[in-house]
Amino acid sequence: MDLSPFLRINPCGYAGLEMAQCKSLAGPQTVAEAATQLISQFSRRLGFTKLAHHEGLTDI
Fold it and tell me: In this structure, how many other beta carbons lie within 10 angstroms of the beta carbon of residue 43?
């Protein structure tokens, strides 16, 4: 992805902050892969041992 547009703004409000891509830093290659890794890290650090994923609304 071309990151040159970020040179014209202050990313996150910080002048001179350089943007990078996870892909170019040997990180996650897709959004889904990044989500999986983030969920894993947050869960581990928060001490969760069991996770469940639900889609849609459930009946009350």
Answer: 13
